[in-house]
Amino acid sequence: EDQVTQSPEALRLQEGESSSLNCSYTVSGLRGLFWYRQDPGKGPEFLFTLYSAGEEKEKERLKATLTKKESFLHITAPKPEDSATYLCAVQPLTGNTGKLIFGQGTTLQVKP
Amino acid sequence: DTEVTQTPKHLVMGMTNKKSLKCEQHMGHRAMYWYKQKAKKPPELMFVYSYEKLSINESVPSRFSPECPNSSLLNLHLHALQPEDSALYLCASSQIWGLTYEQYFGPGTRLTVT
Fold first, then answer.
1. How are strands ordered across the β-sheet holding A19-26?
2. Chain B residues with beta carbon closer than 8 angstroms to that of A104
3. Is the Cβ pair A49, B102 closer than 8 Å?
4. pLDDT in tens, A33-42
5. Could you give the angle at the alpha carbon of B21 between the alpha carbons of B20 and B24, nearest 5°?
């Protein structure tokens, strides 16, 4: 069964304290892995797409990496405005659909 | 421009009311989606439209009725809802489905059923 697990469930950091969020997945073939940021009461905001193991993408203080079993979202020197829930989703290779399998999310709080 | 718009932002309706949620995108995407999201949970897929045709219905109750009038618009008609249907309803769009294309989400409609 295709599955996505994110850890930790919640993370509290001090401003400037770098850390990583984990997204582990089991899927019968990966078409793509997506990272989204979601602020309370708003729609998810697209961050990155990763397609194959070894791929890395960066945007400001965020860097996403991908292996055959998991993805990491590294946050370097975070600021309070980085506080949000970060969602990981995978699109399986099987089935010609746009259906995404989401993880439960990691809620990040960055304190000044 | 990667904007998906949704109206209204908030909606309160009684269990006997009929209302509609609207979604619009001008990115030329040919796949559009409706999701339901409860607090502290990830989005849950409801419907997928591809080339204005319904391609996926995730066993959603018939009190939710989707409609795709054209390639830019997506509606969700609501009738005889239950209090447990209260949630954030999200619309998303993507380039042609079947390939790895990211979905872009709208801001959502916060629905409260009284």
1. A3-7, A19-26, A70-75, A62-66, A56-59
2. 41-42
3. yes
4. 999 999 999 9
5. 130
